[in-house]
Design brief:
Elements lengths: L1 H10 L19 E4 L8 E4 L5 H19 L5 H9 L10 E5 L4 E5 L8 H4 L21 H11 L3 E6 L5 E6 L21 H13 L4 H8 L3 H13 L3 E3 L5 E3 L1 H10 L1
Helix pairs in contact: 2-3, 3-5, 7-8
Length: 260
């Protein structure tokens, strides 16, 4: 069985060959469940490696890659520190669950559990003996480093008892903030002539009028008045109405507010 193979490696004499153990297809091998949607069953991948260094590498790498595909920002080093901690549970019935677009990763086992969870977060507290230190650092730094790293990212690390027996470690980051489109930059001011500015002011004062009336007010010909009104209309500052009358638009009003 899978757990028996792990136990045998931990109890093996270090002088023995460290050749890779045969691949296990046992149903108790670690599994990764990826939830693409909360309304659909997860995709489940088995990680049957039983050679301890390969198992740790495979679990950490596959979980990291799958979470990144979902959008996770969780650092690889944090994930690996927690996965290495599974050695204390002999990797018994490990289930790694990826949720919330990769922002929540839950790592569960059915090992002996963690009695004093508060001390597990304090550097230096460890149950790792010589047999475990062949595969991990075993200095009580894994969970404290992971918790501190997540805290700096406004995330959290939580330890709970699993149902029946074992431990569940939850790594959680806040959702990735949506990228806000940049605010549109204000339209550059058009370079209007003094006469065109006077036309806008007259349209504001008189309301809808034709080119002839504008011409009389400014003592210019109707044709000159017409050309300037067409130019202002092309800039969106003047609108043409019934009978050829022009009126000032919202853009025209905003232009006057900015220059006067």
């Amino acid at each position: 069985m899978f757990v028996d193979e792990i136990r045998q490696q931990l109890q093996r004499d270090p002088a023995e060959s460290d050749a890779a153990a045969p691949i296990s297809h046992d149903e108790t091998a670690p599994r990764i469940a990826v939830y693409d949607s909360v309304t659909a069953p997860p995709r489940v991948l088995s990680v049957p490696d039983t050679h301890l260094p390969d198992l740790i590498d495979a679990l950490a790498s596959k979980t990291y890659d799958l979470a990144r595909q979902q959008g996770s920002r969780l650092p690889y080093t944090v994930l690996r520190e927690v996965i290495e901690n599974l050695i204390h549970a002999w990797f018994s019935d490990v289930v790694i669950t990826i949720l919330d677009d990769g922002n929540t990763i839950r790592i569960a086992d059915r090992g002996p559990g963690i009695g004093d969870k508060a001390k597990a977060f304090r550097p230096g507290f460890s149950t790792a003996g010589p047999e475990l230190k062949r595969f991990i650092k075993g200095v009580g730094s894994g969970l404290p480093i992971a918790k501190e790293s997540l805290g700096l990212m406004e995330g959290m690390l939580d330890i709970e008892d699993n149902l029946g027996q074992g431990t569940v470690v939850t790594l959680k980051l806040p959702p990735t903030p949506a990228v806000q489109p940049p605010a549109p930059s204000p339209r550059p001011l058009a370079d209007l002539s003094e006469r065109q500015l006077k036309m806008l002011s007259l349209l504001l004062e008189l309301g809808p009028v034709g080119p002839s009336r504008i011409g009389r007010e400014l003592s210019i010909s109707a044709s000159t008045s017409y050309r300037d009104l067409v130019a202002l209309e092309a800039l969106g500052m003047v609108a043409s109405g019934a009978g050829g009358r022009r009126s000032i638009t919202k853009d025209g009003l905003q232009y006057l507010d900015r220059v006067l």
